Amino acid sequence: MPTYTPPLRDMQFVLHEVFQVTEAFKAMPRHADVDADTINAVLEEAGKFAAEVTFPLNISGDTEGCQLDNQTHEVTTPKGFKEAYQQYVEGGWPALSCEPEYGGQGLPFVVNQCLYEMLNSANQAWTMYPGLSHGAYEALHAHGTDEQKKLYLPKLTSGEWTGTMCLTEPHCGTDLGLLRTKAEPVGDGTYRITGNKIFISAGEHGFTSNIVHLVLARLPDAPKGSKGISLFVVPKFKVGADGSIGERNPIYCTALEHKMGIHGNATCALSLDGAIGTLVGQPNKGLAAMFVMMNAARLGVGNQSLGLTEVAFQNALVYAKDRLQMRSLSGTKAKDKEADPIIVHPDVRKMLMTARAYADGARALQVYCSLLVDQEQHHTDEKVRKDSAELVALLTPIVKAFVTDNGHISTNACMQVFGGHGFIKEWGMEQYVRDNRINMIYEGTNTVQSLDLLGRKVLGNQGATLKKFGKLIGQLVAEEGVNEAMSEFITPVAWLGEQMTKFTTEIGFKGFQNPDEVGAAAVDYLRVAGHLAFGYMFARMAQVALRKIAEGSEDPFYTAKLQTARFYFAKLFPEVHSLMRTARAGSKVLMETDAALA
Amino acid sequence: MPTYTPPLRDMQFVLHEVFQVTEAFKAMPRHADVDADTINAVLEEAGKFAAEVTFPLNISGDTEGCQLDNQTHEVTTPKGFKEAYQQYVEGGWPALSCEPEYGGQGLPFVVNQCLYEMLNSANQAWTMYPGLSHGAYEALHAHGTDEQKKLYLPKLTSGEWTGTMCLTEPHCGTDLGLLRTKAEPVGDGTYRITGNKIFISAGEHGFTSNIVHLVLARLPDAPKGSKGISLFVVPKFKVGADGSIGERNPIYCTALEHKMGIHGNATCALSLDGAIGTLVGQPNKGLAAMFVMMNAARLGVGNQSLGLTEVAFQNALVYAKDRLQMRSLSGTKAKDKEADPIIVHPDVRKMLMTARAYADGARALQVYCSLLVDQEQHHTDEKVRKDSAELVALLTPIVKAFVTDNGHISTNACMQVFGGHGFIKEWGMEQYVRDNRINMIYEGTNTVQSLDLLGRKVLGNQGATLKKFGKLIGQLVAEEGVNEAMSEFITPVAWLGEQMTKFTTEIGFKGFQNPDEVGAAAVDYLRVAGHLAFGYMFARMAQVALRKIAEGSEDPFYTAKLQTARFYFAKLFPEVHSLMRTARAGSKVLMETDAALA
C-alpha cells in the first residue's frame, strides 16, 4: 500500500527561502500581516488532513467508483468520501483563501495552492469536489451580481454547498462556439435553460444540500459562435431570496462516464430541462466570465500533476530502497543481503530523479505563479499588478501543459521502478498514471495550451511578456554572473534565454506567412518555454542552497537541492536541443500528408 | 466503438517489395516453395479472424476480466474468449509455423509474426493465450527429450493444449538467480516441484483439456544463483505415456492479479505443492533453455505494441476526420460544416503521423527480424545462419524496448486526438494505452533490454555485431548515394551511423573505467540505436517507393510511404540529438544523489 508524507519542508523552502512570500505580502494590504508561522501551521494541519483523511480513500475510491440511481438521478460516491468532505468543511478548509466578507479566512492564494498540492497527492478524484467549488466561487465573485454573491458566496465559502462548471456538450469541447444549450428569459429576470452537458466533474453527489452549477448557454437573440455565449448560475435546488432551499431544479444527472482514472469523481452527463438560472455578468460575455474560472483551473490542473508526481516519487523511492534485485554494476553494495536494493542501478536513479526534479520544479513554478496571482489582486502598485497579471497569463499554459506532461513522464517512470508490481492495482502506482492522464486533456488540451502560449501570449504581443520573463533571467545573471559556483546553473538558462529570442522571432516570421507554422511548432515551443521556466526555478533554488552552504549550513536538504538541480540540467533540460530542431522542421511535413492519412 | 482493418497492403509491401521474402526463402529448403500468393491468402484469412472474431471481444474482455473460483481453482475468462479460441484451433492457426512432423503447417516464422501483429491489434489480452503456447512449443522443441516432444508438441501444435512460462516469484523478477521453487527427484525420472510463482500470464483458463507449464526451479544440489536453475515441464493434468490425461497435478491458481490492463488475460499466482514434472534440457541449465522462449517472446512483445500502435492509429484517424471543432489556422476548410474536422490542425496531424510512422517502422523492423530468425534456422549457408543469429540478437532488445516505448508514445498520442473522449472507456482508446503499458515491463523491463543491448550485444563483442548492422547502411549508401532523390532519407541515417561508432566507443571507454557509466547511458543509447534501425527501415521503404514512382506508378500508397518517411526524419528522428547529449552527461549526476534520494 502506498504512503504519503506531506513535503512541508520543500514547500517552506520555496515559500520562505526562495520567494520570501511574507516579504512580498507586505506590499499587499490584505495579506500584510500573514507571517511564516501562520502559513507553516496551516500547511502542517492541511498535510495532516490530506495524509490522514483523504489519502486512505484513494485506492478504495478508485476501486468503488461512483454509481447513479437512474430513478432518483442521485449519485453515490465511494465509501468515506462524503464523511471526508464533512471533515473538510468542519476544518474550515473551503474558506481558506475566500474573502472575509463572505466568511472566508482571507489567506493568500499561494497558501491555498499549497493546501491543494497536498490534497491532490492524497486523492485527486476527491479533491475535485471542493476544487471545482472554489472555481465557481471565483467566477461568481468576479462577475456575479450583489444578490448572487450574497446568495451563493457564503455557502460556497463555508462548503455548505459546492459548485461546478458546465461547459462541454457532446459535439463541442474545445470549440465552445458550437454550443447549443438554450436560455430563454422567463420575464422575471430568470432564465429557463435547456440542453445537454457532458463531462461535468463533481456534477452530482450527496455531499451537500445544494450544488451550484455555472452553465454556459445561448440567449434567443445571441450571435453565432463564441460571441453569443452567456453564463448562468443554475442551482440544483432553487434558492429563495433568503437563501432557503426550494424545489428541485430540472438539472439532472443522466449518466456517469466510465473513465480511465479519477474514478472517485462523478463525471456526469447533465440534462437541463427548463432549469431556472440567473445571468452571471453581461449577456453574450459568458466565455470571458468563465475564463476567470478557467485560468485558475488551469493552474489547478498543473497543481494536480504536481501532487501526483510528488506522491508517485515518494512511493517509488521507498520501493527502490526496499526491493532487492541484482547486484550493482560497480560492485556489490549490500553484502549482507541476497541482492542489492535496486536504487543502486543508475537507471532506477534516473527514473526517481526525473520525478523528484519535475516535482521540485513544478512546486517552485506553482508557488511563483500563485504569488503572482496574489500580487495581481492585492499589490498596492498598479504597475506590479499589471506586470504580475501579464506574467501569470504567460506562465499559466506552461503550468497546465508542461507540468501535466511531466506528470505523465514522472508517474510512468515511478510505476516503471516497480517492474511488474507497478502494473498491479494494489501497489497504487498505475492509478497515479491513470489519474494524471486526464490532466493533459481537460481545461483545454495541452495542444490548446500550446497555441494559447505561442499564438496569444507570446506572438500576440510581439514577445513583450516573454521579454519581461527574460528580464528576470537577466537580473539573475547580473546578480550571480560572477559567482563561479552558480555558473553550472546559470549558463544553460542564460543560453536558452538568448536562443528563445531568435527561436521565437523565427517562428513568428514563418507564422506570419503561414499560420500553420505556429500550429506545427507550438507544442515543441511550449516544452522549450517550460524548460526555460524550470531552468530559472532551478537556478533560483540552487542560488539559495549555495548561499546556505556558504553560510556554513550542513543540512543535507540544501545538498539535495543542488543534486536535483544538477540532475535536471544534465538529464532533462537538454531535450530543448531536439525540440528546437523539430519545431523548426516546420509544418510542411505535417500538412503534406494527405496520402499517409487517407 | 473502435474499428479495425487488417493492414494487409502494408504487410505485403514490407514482405514482398522491401524485403522480398520469397526470394530469401529460396535459400531455405524448408520454405523454398512458399510463394507470395500463399502468404497473402493466409494473411487475408488471418486478418478476417482477427477483425471478426477476437476484435469484437476486446472491450468486453477488458470490462469483464477474469474470475477465480477459490474452491475449484478454475478461472472463468471473459464471455466469448473460449469460443474464439475454439475457432482459432479449428482454423488451424496454432499450427501455422509449427513443424510438419508434429502436425504443423511449417510456414515461415515471418508469416506467423504477421498473423500475430493482427491478433495483437484485435485483442492483446486474448492473443496472449495462444501466444504463450507458442513459446512453450519452441522451448520444448529446442530442449525437450524425444518423449517430451512426442507427448507435448502435437497437442501444442493443434492447440488442443496451451502452454505457459513460469519464471517470476514474489521476491524475484529480473533477478531469477534468487528463485526458490524446489524440484526434488522422485526416483523414477520425474521431479516433485514445490513453490510459488506469480505473474503467470494465461496461467489458468478453461480453453483446453490441459495446460503445459514450463517451470523454473532448483534441484536439491543446485549451485546458488542463476547457475543453479533448471527447467521443468509440469502439466496441469498428468499425462500418460500414451498422451492420455491423468489425475490433476497440484499446480493451482491461488489468485488473479488486478491489473492496469490486459484484463482479459488471466495473470495468475500459481502454487506448486509437489507437482510432478520432468526436466527439460540439462540440470542447472534452465535459464539458457528458457531463453529460447524469452528471445522469441521479446520479439513477440514488440509485436504486441506494433499491433496496438496500428489499431490506435486507425481509430484516431477516423475520429480526426469525423470530429468537427474549430477552424483551420490557415483558413476555413469545410465551408459547408459548422467547423472543420480536427485533422486540419497541424498538431493533430503530428499526433496521427507519430503513430503511423511508429507503426510502419516497427512493422518493417519486425518483418526484417523475423526473416532473420527464419534464416538463422533454415538457411543453407552456415555463415548466413550465424550472421542472422547475431543480427537478430542485436536487434531483439531494440524491438522489445524501442517499439514498446514508441507504442506508449503512440497510443497516448492517439488517445489525445480524442480529447476528453479519449479518457472514456467506450471509445476504446484508453484501453490501448493501458494494455500497451505492460509491454514496457514484462519479458525483461525496458531498462533490462537496454543493458542487454549496450552491455552484452554491443560492448560484449567490442561492437562487432553493431558493425555488421553498420555494413547494411554502408551498402545502402553505396547503392543509393548518388541518387539525389534518396539523399533526404540516406543522409540522416549515414550521419547517425557514423556518430554511433564514436558514441559507442566513448561510452565503452568510460564504462571500462566505471561500469555505472554503461548503466547510466544504456536507456538513451537504446533509443538512439532504435532510431538507427528505424532510420534504415524508412530509407529502405522510401527506396522502394521512389523506384515505383519513377517507374510510373501513380498509386498513392507509395506517396504515403514517402510522406511518412519525411515526417519521421523531420519530427521523430531528431530526438537523437538530445539523447546523445543526455547519455554523455554520464553517471555522476545520477549516482551522487544520496541526499536527494534520502
UniProtKB/TrEMBL annotation, chains A, B:
Gene3D superfamilies, sorted: Acyl-CoA dehydrogenase/oxidase, N-terminal domain (1.10.540.10), Butyryl-CoA Dehydrogenase, subunit A, domain 2 (2.40.110.10), Butyryl-CoA Dehydrogenase, subunit A, domain 3 (1.20.140.10)
Domain Acyl-CoA oxidase/dehydrogenase middle: 165-273
Ranges where the Acetyl-CoA dehydrogenase-like C-terminal domain occurs: 473-593
Keywords linked to the UniProt accession: FAD, Flavoprotein, Oxidoreductase
InterPro entries reported for this sequence: Acyl-CoA_dh-like_C_dom (IPR025878), Acyl-CoA_Oxase/DH_mid-dom (IPR006091), Acyl-CoA_Oxase/DH_mid-dom_sf (IPR046373), AcylCo_DH-like_C (IPR036250), AcylCo_DH/oxidase_C (IPR009075), AcylCoA_DH/ox_N (IPR013786), AcylCoA_DH/ox_N_sf (IPR037069), AcylCoA_DH/oxidase_NM_dom_sf (IPR009100)
Domain Acyl-CoA dehydrogenase/oxidase C-terminal, first and last residues per copy: 284-451
Origin: domain of life: Bacteria
Cofactors demanded by this protein: FAD
Annotated Acyl-CoA dehydrogenase/oxidase N-terminal domain residues: 82-160
Assigned protein family: Belongs to the acyl-CoA dehydrogenase family.
Protein name from the UniProt record: Acyl-CoA dehydrogenase C-terminal domain-containing protein
